[in-house]
UniProtKB/TrEMBL annotation:
Organism from which the protein derives: Oopsacas minuta
Gene3D superfamilies (UniProt xref): MFS general substrate transporter like domains
Protein name: Major facilitator superfamily (MFS) profile domain-containing protein
Short name of one Pfam family: Sugar_tr
Subcellular location: Membrane
GO terms for cellular component: membrane
Main subcellular location: membrane
Entry's Gene Ontology molecular function annotations: transmembrane transporter activity
């Protein structure tokens, strides 16, 4: 089992940055957020399917299900088009041109996009691996981009999503009306719905507003979890004496002093918190970091910096999961959830002041934005000067 987990971890480390970069290369600039969210949607659907199947089969049989899916996926990948950036970088300009034309369609201005693509590839062609490493360290614009994306990846895990997902069954162990295994599926289903809503909002509202709203909503869910944990230990200790049996009945031992109906509803509070958390996470902090991973990193150092960002993400994931049980014993789970509240509010401030809005920009414009340069955008309605954030953006709309 350990060997299998190691292989899965290595595979995910290779696949995740490639998927984000591939989607960013193929997606038109007007809909990068929409296409970038497909990865998160597919990811959460896979988790939901595994939760659902896991109710009916053992772990060993559940481990065989992905084998069939992966074999089918491998067959479908043979029809996938290569990235036009990759084709042009290998001197296959005609194939790259046909790919862009096929992806965009005849009504899209793909000629100017392809010429811009060739310019970017030509500029990057002379760079060696060591040039990219040195540039990543000493070029302030590149360093700014990788630091911002890496900190976003840290905040992804500090939302508490991995901890809550891993310990959801124990958080719901006192649920009387709903079996914990069944209740654990509901938040995942809600997250799937919220990611679907996100796909229609991200290219209209933008990345920053959704991240801020998402972070505030996650903070609220941790407040509810903290109050629930505190209440179960000090105000409602009698409710923990209800025991859920396999046939979903319950018994009360002794004179508890609280009504059965009261305890039934109290034990649904953590489920409400998990539903809010997963919905708000799917609305922003779930899909957007991977959208930004693909579109915000400089083209010259994208492969290296994407690998660094994923390493930061996986290390943060392991660290939060390892520290949670120790912190729970040291200060109590209610204080741990309050720490997550503080971290999520901090992430909102970080997004507000330090992360540029990339909605509607192509990869070249985003790279210029991280360099601190002025980007000019044209719109039908005229408006003098719009400053979106700490990076200056001029527009006619």
């Amino acid at each position: 089992m350990v060997i299998g987990r190691v292989i899965i971890g290595l595979s995910l480390g290779l696949i995740i940055p490639i998927i984000s970069i591939y989607i960013a290369d193929l997606a038109p600039k007007e809909h990068k957020g929409f296409y970038g969210s497909i990865f998160e949607h597919a990811f959460i659907i896979g988790i939901l399917m595994s939760h659902f199947i896991g109710i009916f089969v053992s772990f060993r049989w559940l481990a065989l299900v992905p084998v069939v899916v992966l074999l089918f996926q491998s067959l479908l990948l043979t029809w996938q088009p290569y990235s036009p950036y990759w084709l042009v970088s290998r001197g296959l300009e005609k194939r790259g041109f046909r790919t862009v034309k096929y992806l965009r369609g005849p009504k899209y201005d793909f000629l100017s996009e392809f010429e811009e693509m060739k310019d970017v590839v030509k500029e990057n062609a002379t760079w060696t691996f060591m040039d990219r490493v040195k540039s990543l360290i000493f070029n302030l614009a590149y360093l700014r981009a990788i630091i911002i994306i890496s900190l976003i990846m840290v905040f992804v895990e500090l939302t508490g999503i991995s901890v809550v997902a891993s310990y959801s069954t124990s958080l719901l162990e006192h649920s009387i009306l709903i079996h914990p295994k069944v209740a654990s599926i509901l938040p995942t289903t809600i997250q799937c719905i919220s990611v679907l809503i996100f796909t229609f909002l991200v290219d209209r509202i933008g990345r920053k507003p959704l991240l801020i709203v998402s972070g505030a909503g996650i903070a609220l869910s941790h407040v509810i979890l903290s109050i629930n944990s505190f209440g179960l230990q000090f105000f409602w200790p009698q409710c923990t004496q209800f025991e859920t049996t396999t046939n979903f009945t319950h018994t009360v031992s002794g004179n508890l002093g609280v009504s059965e109906d009261f305890c039934n509803h109290i034990t649904l509070i953590p489920l409400l918190a998990l539903v809010i958390l997963r919905f708000m996470y799917g609305l922003g902090w779930g899909p957007i970091p991977f959208v930004l991973l693909g579109e915000s990193l400089p083209s010259k150092v994208r492969s290296i910096s994407a690998s660094v960002a994923i390493c930061v993400l996986t290390f943060s994931n392991a660290l939060t999961l390892l520290l949670f049980p120790y912190l729970e014993r040291l200060i109590g789970d209610y204080f741990v959830f309050l720490l997550y509240v503080l971290v999520n509010l901090t992430s909102c401030a970080f997004i507000l002041f330090f992360v540029p809005e990339t909605k509607g920009l192509n990869l070249t414009q985003i790279e210029e934005l991280f360099k601190g340069k002025v980007i000019f955008l044209r719109c039908k309605v005229r408006n003098p000067f719009v400053r979106r954030d700490v990076y200056v953006v001029k527009t006619d709309c």
